[in-house]
Specification:
This protein is mainly α. It has 15 helices and no strands. The longest helix has about 55 residues. The N and C termini lie far apart (about 85 Å).
């Protein structure tokens, strides 16, 4: 017999599943770049927004993106602005995208704004691709080092050192340490694996908190090489985003607020929000950012000051963005050659230590014979 309580539970489950399925899935950046580029070209050619959206939906290979574009087309046909329809998908397109589209509609230059968005998104995609590409090599090497180290400790070392323990002689300190680590890994390997999983989950939980994320981002900024790369990436995104927003005549205070939300580092976000409050009080941008010289180099602040004086801040920020994007690209290209010697040294120390621990007892035994 079905009770009201069970019916209610079933209803909640059904609603949850329906809501989960209806929830917009993440769209690849490459698909959004293609959408923005093609829509800009269509509008410039005189094709209506509604027809453009329908055409792009038919071309899309993603069922989810096709559904979103058709929904936007229906919204536009009902007389709504494109930005109004995009608000429903803020999680997918982001506040920067929607704000710039809204500004383009208000100024009557939507096609030009879409072109700026195309450049903005393409530059972001280039930086992300460069970072991911540069990190593949060291990640693969480190993963292989860890895997080989575990196999050596669990399978190879016990076989070799078993001979030494049967001889019942005093073994050198390095050999005893190696045997202890190997025995510990074999006996408590399961617990070590469980501890590692718990540690990773705990770290993720910690980094999901505001204070934990802040501490982690401070550490990253102070880490050699990594900190420099993070600063360049955030400065490039700051300059590019702020330039794009200013070109669409969005007020400077609102531009700072939007830009702060798209930067990856919490410390940079806080700096922009504090600077925004100062700008509200009438302080210029250069002076508002001046207390954060560790985040914004003097050359960036000087360029901003010149841009404010000449009234060409958007163009100067764009030039700064290009400079730092090229810096990031060059750094990512050279990163494998910087990391490779470090990995070789670490690998050499590990292999050398194991070799010494295994060879020393053999040498001692041969001398005693």
């Amino acid at each position: 017999m079905t009770t009201p309580a069970s019916n209610a539970t079933t209803g909640h489950k059904t609603n949850f599943i329906a809501n989960w399925r209806a929830r917009p899935k993440k769209i690849k950046l490459a698909q959004k770049i293609f959408f923005v580029q093609q829509l800009s070209v269509m509008l410039k050619a005189g094709i209506s927004l509604s027809v453009g959206l329908k055409t792009l939906s038919e071309q899309s290979s993603s069922k989810n993106f096709k559904r979103i574009l058709l929904d936007l087309q229906q919204s536009v046909e009902k007389g709504n602005l494109l930005s109004k329809g995009l608000e429903k998908y803020q999680r997918i397109f982001g506040e920067l995208f929607i704000s710039m589209v809204r500004a383009g509609e208000m100024s009557g230059k939507l096609e030009d704004v879409l072109k700026q968005l195309f450049v903005q998104m393409k530059k972001d995609n280039d930086i992300i691709s460069k970072v991911k590409g540069a990190m593949i090599y060291p990640l693969v090497v480190v993963t292989m080092m860890v895997a080989i180290g575990i196999l050596m400790m669990v399978y190879v070392i016990p076989t070799i050192t078993g001979v030494f323990t049967e001889l019942n002689v005093q073994l050198p300190l390095p050999t005893r340490i190696l045997i202890f680590l190997s025995n510990f890994s074999v006996k408590y390997g399961v617990f070590l694996a469980i501890g590692a999983v718990i540690g990773v989950i705990g770290l993720q939980r910690l980094l999901s908190t505001t204070s934990g994320k802040k501490v982690f981002h401070i550490i990253l900024l102070k880490t050699p090489v990594v900190g420099t790369i993070i600063k360049k990436i955030n400065i490039a995104r700051f300059c590019r985003s702020l330039s794009s927003l200013l070109k669409t005549d969005i007020p400077i205070v609102q531009s700072f607020e939007i830009t702060s939300r798209i930067l990856g580092n919490v410390i940079y976000r806080q700096a922009l929000l504090e600077a925004k409050e100062k700008i509200k009080k009438g302080i210029n941008i250069e002076q508002s950012l001046n207390p954060f010289k560790s985040l914004f180099p003097p050359v960036v602040l000087q360029m901003i000051a010149v841009g404010e004086e000449t009234g060409a801040l958007d163009n100067i920020l764009e030039e700064s963005a290009i400079f730092y994007e090229e810096e990031v690209s060059q750094t990512m290209t050279n990163l494998p050659s910087i990391i490779e010697p470090i990995l070789v040294v670490i690998l050499g120390i590990g292999v050398g230590s194991m070799a010494v621990a295994v060879i020393m007892p053999m040498y001692s035994l041969s001398q005693s014979i």
